[in-house]
Design a protein that fits this description.
It contains ten helices and 20 strands. It is an alpha/beta fold and 452 residues long. Strand 8 and strand 9 form a beta hairpin. The longest helix has 16 residues. The protein is globular, with a radius of gyration of 22 Å. The chain starts with a strand and ends with a helix.
Length: 452
């Protein structure tokens, strides 16, 4: 029995450059980057040195606080470089891939015959424990904790996001196995969210052993945090886990094949993408591995691992994140427009309000860039946030509490329910040009520090 939830607030951003549902190439990487910075709450300890040979699934990093939590290599090859930043902070382990891939054999498993401890041990050993994200705060899940439930969103509404029915069309069996695995980790059930407008057309509505929920509405309806707030809001003292859909498939593959295989279909998207489409790739590939999708001769492209709202600006030499199956290529908006604010007719610009006439062309997509059309200014009290945030919290007061570092008010106004991605649209429509996701992140870091 599914639970139908209709979200009234939100905003779909009509940006051009959606990927066609075809796979243009299989990326054969030269070097793969393993980045500990992908995992919040993970304090890395090196397990390898330059020149070491590794297999796909071999441990590369361990958590200093919990040595059982490992980061494993996505490829077999040789450790080529240990990349460090300021104060010798570990930024990445670069692994030169072999021409023929070899995998650690973890053994094919029958989930029904496994205990909870057996399941945890295999996830930890393989490195796929990092797929489990713990809320509140969005940190790596604690193996010693038992969540009240586990939540999975089987769709996404982010700008230009990959279409799950295409990206995971060959993964239905693995996703079912992944769900069965998650069911071993909680007594509260696996909550599985689908989209109403394609419910009967997706093979994922047949997934068993889940508690189904069907959502309708604009972005951020696909955000698992928004879904949790309508299914079972997180209160103080609660612990829930979430798993990204693409890593749910990887967990299923681990148990079905005995291999830690992180291969995925990656959508290369955005206004600056040439013939946007999909590629078969691994996390950690370099942006140069998809060079045929762009022309950066002018040096005017921003390379984003993820979507335009929540992805990371990784640069032309950056790499795809562990949790990402999308690359967005967008123009760096460095140009200044003379008296742009005073022009009433700007048909090439999208407005979330009716400032311009984009509302007359609801199906038009726009070649957007990174220009914010102004800098930060005084915090304006308005209702613009509540129009795009379908959660029962007070976003303005939460943001101000995070700025002030007031823990009592942060708790009162909903810090346990949100991650920065949930307020990304608030940042997009903010008339004050505040970096709201960074403010929420700072607030969460303060909560972790003070409440641990």
């Amino acid at each position: 029995m599914s639970n139908n939830i209709d979200l009234k607030h939100g905003l779909d951003i009509p940006i051009s450059g959606k990927a066609a549902q075809k796979t243009r190439k299989t990326v054969v990487p030269d070097v793969i980057a393993v980045k500990p910075t992908d995992f919040k709450g993970f304090t890395p300890r090196l397990l390898v040195k330059e020149g070491d040979k590794v297999l796909a699934g071999s441990p590369v990093l361990a958590d200093k606080k919990n040595p059982d939590i490992l980061v494993t290599s996505p490829v077999s090859g040789t450790v080529a470089e240990i990349v460090r930043g300021e104060k010798r902070k570990l930024l990445a382990v670069n692994i030169k891939a072999d021409s023929k891939q070899e995998y650690v054999d973890f053994g094919v498993q029958k989930v029904a015959d496994m205990s909870t401890e057996d399941v945890k041990a295999l996830l930890l050993k393989s490195g796929l424990w990092l797929s489990l994200i713990q809320r509140p705060y969005g940190v790596v899940a604690d193996p010693a904790a038992e969540p009240k439930a586990i939540f999975v969103s089987a769709f996404t509404t982010a700008p230009l996001a990959p279409v799950p029915e295409y990206a995971f069309k060959d993964e239905v069996e693995n996703i079912q196995t992944g769900v069965n695995v998650l069911g071993k980790l909680t007594k509260g059930g696996v909550h599985f969210s689908l989209r109403s407008d394609n419910y009967s057309g997706t093979p994922f509505h047949k997934i068993e052993n889940v508690i189904q929920h069907v959502f309708s509405g604009k972005h951020p309806a696909g955000n698992v945090g928004v879904q949790i707030s309508h299914i079972s809001p997180i209160m103080k003292g609660d612990t829930v886990w979430t798993v990204p859909f693409l890593l749910l498939a990887a967990i299923g593959k681990l148990f079905n094949t005995g291999k830690c295989n992180l291969a995925r279909k990656v959508a290369v998207t955005g206004p600056k993408a040439i013939e946007p489409a999909y590629v078969d790739a691994l996390p950690g590939i370099n942006m140069k591995d998809v060079a045929e999708f762009y022309d950066n001769a002018a040096g005017d492209i921003r390379f984003i691992s993820g979507d335009v709202l929540t992805g990371k600006n990784v640069g032309a030499d950056g790499s795809l994140g562990f949790f990402d199956n999308q690359v967005t290529l967008i123009h760096e908006g460095t140009e200044r427009e003379l008296l742009g604010w005073a022009k009433p007719f700007r048909f090439g610009k999208f407005s979330s309000s009716r400032t311009y006439f984009s509302w007359l062309c609801p199906k038009k997509n726009y070649d957007m860039d990174t220009n914010t059309n102004g800098g930060p200014r005084a915090f304006v009290m308005s209702d613009v946030y509540s129009k795009v945030l379908p959660m029962d919290i007070f976003p303005v007061y939460l943001i101000k509490a995070c700025i002030a570092g007031d823990i009592d008010k942060m708790e009162k106004f909903g810090i346990y329910e949100v991650l920065p991605e949930d307020l990304a649209l608030c940042e997009y429509v903010d008339p004050s040009k505040n970096d709201i996701q960074a403010i929420i992140e700072k607030g969460i870091d303060l909560m972790i520090k003070e409440m641990a």
